[in-house]
Every structure is written in C-alpha cells, then in structure tokens.
Amino acid sequence: MLQGLFGNASEVDVKDIQKDLEAMLVDGEQLVRAFRIIRDLFIFTDKRLILIDKQGITGRKAEYHSIPYKSISHFSVETAGSFDLDAEMKIYISGNMNPIEREFKRGADIKGVQKTLAQFIMK
C-alpha cells in the first residue's frame, strides 16, 4: 500500500482487474500483467498495452490509451539518479513525434514494466 502512495509501480493481480476491463477487451484477448502507479495502470494484454490515467479527486474520470504493440516503434527508460529521484519511461508510437511519458518514483519496478513491454514488442 505505501508503495502505491509514493508512486512506486507495484504489480497487480490481473484477476483483480479482469472484471473492470471485460467491456473493453476483444474476444479472446487475455490480460497478462498489470502494474499500478498510485491510481494509474499499465496493463499488458496478449494484443496491446492499455494505459489508464485516473483523473480528478475521486478518480472516477479516466483516460484510456489502447496501444497495439505493433504501433510502438521504440521506448526509452531513464533510471533514477542521485539527485533526480524519478525514473521515466517514454513510449514512441509510429507516426507520432511526441512520446507517451510516465514517471516512476525511486524503487518502482520499472525494470519489470520495461521487460514486459520488450517481450511483447519483440514478438
């Protein structure tokens, strides 16, 4: 719980979020892995990456990014340093010059997110 409060990515059991996402999954699409950063989610399915950005005080409003793995041209990770305590991931989508950026606090499992993303992109 404390990791979530301080912005660290923590792995979420996909069974816990399956019901909430059923309406947006296509037939046969399976949840593989998910990470929570405070209220936001990185969800890896066997077909795409879903980024959920919870907004507002209550978190009821949410923005959903659905990114097919084939659309990701590359991604970068900048790890936390001595003075810059945050790590950062940028995901570049084909045809879009501006990356999708997400920050991770020190101690976040950015390596787990990076490894999972690489596994799906390199299929």
Order of helices and strands: HEHEEEEEEEH
**Structural Rg:** 14 Å
Q: Report the CATH superfamily.
A: Bacterial Pleckstrin homology domain
Strand order of the largest sheet: 1-2-3-4-5
Which term fits the overall shape? globular
**What is the count of distinct domains?**
1
Main sheet record: 5 strands, antiparallel
DSSP strand content: 35-45%
**Alpha-carbon distance between the two ends:** 33 Å
Bin the helical content: 10-25%
Would you identify the regions where 5 or more consecutive residues have pLDDT less than 50? Answer: 1-7
Number of helices: 3
CATH architecture: Roll
Mean pLDDT: 83
Description:
By secondary structure, this protein is an alpha+beta fold. Strand 6 and strand 7 form a beta hairpin. The model is unreliable at 1-7 (pLDDT under 50). The chain has three helices and eight strands; from the N terminus they run H-E-H-E-E-E-E-E-E-E-H. It has one domain (2-121): Roll (PH-domain like).
Please outline what is shown here.
The protein has 123 residues and is α+β, with helices and mostly antiparallel strands. 20% of the residues lie in helices and 42% in strands. The protein has helices at 2-5, 14-21, 110-121; strands at 9-12, 31-37, 40-45, 48-55, 61-68, 72-78, 87-93, 100-104.
